[in-house]
């Protein structure tokens, strides 16, 4: 049997790129989505709410790599931030990630597998404002990554991406701001981030690292 990977949030921009890079390397790829979704590159898609108290992944009896990509982003000023907005972000970005790990860690321990968490450059940078709750959730993801690697002995690492290019951002003020504040005057490409995810999943000596890939935005 070939190697297996589960990619949460498989239907997103970045999730689709991660699915493709593993598929191209011969993995049997599983995914999760909150909506009906299919792809010829996916063996199976679990339609599930990862923040639900009890999550399971039937039909999955072995696993080599887990990519925790599912997440949610919202904006709100600190003085206007509601508990509902806070909980919405933390329930998926942090709690959902933890529940997924908890459900699958026996399979990963059995295979000496690896976990790659998708954090954000916002874990170490305040982003563009009005995102303190999102930034805090990604800071938690990065901290959890380090502790999980130390506790389990698994190769657990995180990728902290910068702004990913999307059609709706083309020509926007945000795109112009990004270009004027980064070393490489481009937004990130999802394929570039996916390549780093794959590299970390296969590395043998990298543990508990949170690697920022942002075209140098956080340097400027």
Description:
Helix 1 (13-24) packs across helix 5 and helix 2 runs parallel beside helix 3 (132-152). The model has no long low-confidence stretch (mean pLDDT 96). The chain has a single domain (4-219), classed as 3-Layer(aba) Sandwich (Rossmann fold). A 7-stranded parallel beta sheet has the order 3-2-1-4-5-6-7, with helices on both faces. It has 5 helices and 7 strands. It is 38% helix and 16% strand. It is globular, with a radius of gyration of 17 Å. It is α/β, with parallel strands linked by helices.
List strands and helices in order, with pairings.
Layout: E1 4-7, H1 13-24, E2 28-33, E3 42-47, E4 65-68, H2 83-111, E5 114-118, H3 132-152, E6 155-161, H4 173-180, H5 190-202, E7 210-213
Parallel strand pairs: 1-2, 1-4, 2-3, 4-5, 5-6, 6-7
Helix pairs in contact: 1-5, 2-3
């Amino acid at each position: 049997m070939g190697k297996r990977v589960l990619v949460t949030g498989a239907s997103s921009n970045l999730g689709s790129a991660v699915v493709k890079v593993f598929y191209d390397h011969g993995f049997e790829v599983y995914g999760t989505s909150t909506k009906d979704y299919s792809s010829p590159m996916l063996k199976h898609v679990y339609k599930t709410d990862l923040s639900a108290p009890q999550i399971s992944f039937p039909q999955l009896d072995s696993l080599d790599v887990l990519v925790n990509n599912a997440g949610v982003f919202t904006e709100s000023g600190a003085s206007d931030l509601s508990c509902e907005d806070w909980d919405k972000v933390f329930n998926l970005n942090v709690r959902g990630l933890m529940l997924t790990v908890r459900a699958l860690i026996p399979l990963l321990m059995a295979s000496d597998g690896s976990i790659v968490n998708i954090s954000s450059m916002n874990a170490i940078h305040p982003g563009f404002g009005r995102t303190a709750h999102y930034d805090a959730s990604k800071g938690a993801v990065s901290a959890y990554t380090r502790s999980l690697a130390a506790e389990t002995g698994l190769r657990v690492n995180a990728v902290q991406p910068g702004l990913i290019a999307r059609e709706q951002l083309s020509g926007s003020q945000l795109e112009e701001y990004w270009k004027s504040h980064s070393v490489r005057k481009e937004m990130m490409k999802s394929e570039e981030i996916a390549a780093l995810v794959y590299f970390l999943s296969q590395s043998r000596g990298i543990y508990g690292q949170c690697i920022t890939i942002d075209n140098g935005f956080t340097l400027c």
